[in-house]
C-alpha cells in the first residue's frame, strides 16, 4: 500500500515536472537576456521587454493549450487519465497533445513506486525520490536544450552531502571525496579533449551531475556510473549515426545517460561492484 501511494504521488509529481521541464529554460533565458541588456547598457525591443516583464514562473501563469491558448481546466490536468479521456487532443481546439506528457508522468510514477517498494518506509526512500524527480527534470531539459540547470543540479549536490551526515546512502567522508572526484574526473577529460582537438567535448553541467552522484553514493560507485553512462551513450550515439544518419558533428546530450547510470547505481550499484570483484 505504501508503494502504491508513493506511485500515485509520483504521477502527480510527473505532471509538475512537465511544467518544470517546459518553463525553467524559458525563465533562465529571460534572466540571461535582461542581465545581458543591463551589462551592455542596451534597451530591449518593446515587444520583447513587455514579454519579459509579464510574470512567468513555475506557478504563474496557469497552463494553457499551446495551440489555441485556452486555459487547461483542473479535470483536464489529471495525470495520464485526462490524456486518455481527451484521447490525446485539446478539449477546445482538438489539437494533438504531445504523448511525452503522459509518458513522463508514467515514468515518474513507475520509478517512484519502484523506489518505495525497494527501500520501504525509510529515510532512503524520501531522499531517493527527490533525487529521482530531479534527474527526470534534468534529463528532459538536457534532451530539449542541451542544458543541465544549476537551479536543479546544485541543490541536489548539497542535498547529497547533507544526506551523508545521516549515512543515508554513504558516509560523509566518501561523499565529500565523491563530489570532488566526480567533478574533477569529467573536468580532466574535458580539458584533455580541448587541448588535443581545440573543441569542447562536454558541458560543465555534466561535471556537476557526476559530482552529484559522487556526493549521494560516494566515490566507490563513480567507476560504475562512468562506465555505464559511457556504454549507454556510445551504443545510442552509434545507433543514431548508423540508423538515423545523424551527423558526427551533431552534439548528443550526455546528461540522460549519466542519470540512467545513476539510477542503476541507486538500485544495484553495490551488487555490480561485488559481482565484478568476485569474478575478477
Written description of the protein model:
The protein is mostly helical. The protein is built from 10 helices and no strands. It has helices at residues 2-40, 46-53, 81-85, 100-119, 123-145, 150-164, 172-197, 204-217, 222-243, 255-279. Helix 6 (150-164) packs parallel to helix 8. The longest helix has 39 residues, at 2-40. The radius of gyration is 21 Å and the shape is globular. The two termini are 41 Å apart.
Residue share in helix: over 70%
Cα gyration radius (Å)? 21 Å
- Ranges where pLDDT stays below 50 over 5 or more residues in a row are none
Q: Can you give the mean pLDDT?
A: 88
**Largest sheet entry:** none
Portion of residues in beta strands equals under 5%
Task: Give me the count of strands.
Answer: 0
Molecular shape: globular
Alpha-beta content class: mainly alpha
Order of H and E elements: HHHHHHHHHH
Distance between the termini: 41 Å
Can you count the helices? 10
Please tag this protein with its features.
about 280 residues, mainly alpha
Topology record:
Elements: H1 2-40, H2 46-53, H3 81-85, H4 100-119, H5 123-145, H6 150-164, H7 172-197, H8 204-217, H9 222-243, H10 255-279
Helix pairs in contact: 1-4, 1-5, 4-5, 5-6, 5-10, 6-7, 6-8, 7-8, 8-10, 9-10
Amino acid at each position: 500500500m505504501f508503494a502504491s501511494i508513493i506511485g500515485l504521488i509520483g504521477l502527480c509529481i510527473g505532471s509538475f515536472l512537465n511544467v518544470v521541464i517546459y518553463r525553467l529554460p524559458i525563465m533562465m533565458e529571460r534572466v540571461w537576456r535582461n542581465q545581458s541588456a543591463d551589462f551592455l547598457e542596451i534597451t530591449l525591443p518593446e515587444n520583447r521587454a513587455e514579454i519579459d516583464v509579464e510574470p512567468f514562473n513555475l506557478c504563474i501563469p496557469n497552463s494553457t493549450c499551446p495551440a489555441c491558448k485556452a486555459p487547461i481546466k483542473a479535470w483536464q490536468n489529471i495525470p495520464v487519465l485526462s490524456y486518455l479521456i481527451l484521447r490525446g487532443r485539446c478539449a477546445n481546439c482538438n489539437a494533438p497533445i504531445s504523448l511525452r506528457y503522459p509518458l513522463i508522468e508514467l515514468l515518474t510514477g513507475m520509478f517512484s513506486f519502484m523506489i518505495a517498494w525497494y527501500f520501504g518506509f525509510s529515510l532512503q526512500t524520501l531522499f531517493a525520490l527527490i533525487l529521482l524527480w530531479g534527474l527526470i527534470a534534468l534529463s528532459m531539459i538536457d534532451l530539449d536544450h542541451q542544458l543541465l540547470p544549476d537551479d536543479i543540479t546544485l541543490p541536489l549536490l548539497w542535498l547529497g552531502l547533507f544526506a551523508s551526515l545521516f549515512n543515508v546512502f554513504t558516509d560523509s567522508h566518501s561523499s565529500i571525496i565523491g563530489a570532488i572526484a566526480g567533478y574533477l574526473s569529467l573536468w580532466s577529460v574535458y580539458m584533455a579533449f580541448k587541448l588535443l582537438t581545440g573543441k569542447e567535448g562536454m558541458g560543465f553541467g555534466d561535471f556537476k551531475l557526476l559530482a552529484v552522484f559522487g556526493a549521494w553514493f560516494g566515490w566507490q560507485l563513480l567507476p560504475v556510473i562512468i562506465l555505464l553512462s559511457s556504454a549507454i551513450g556510445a551504443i545510442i550515439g552509434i545507433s543514431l549515426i548508423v540508423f538515423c544518419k545523424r551527423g558526427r558533428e551533431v552534439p548528443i546530450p550526455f546528461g540522460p545517460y549519466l542519470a540512467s547510470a545513476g539510477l542503476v547505481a541507486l538500485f544495484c550499484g553495490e551488487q555490480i561492484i561485488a559481482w565484478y570483484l568476485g569474478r575478477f
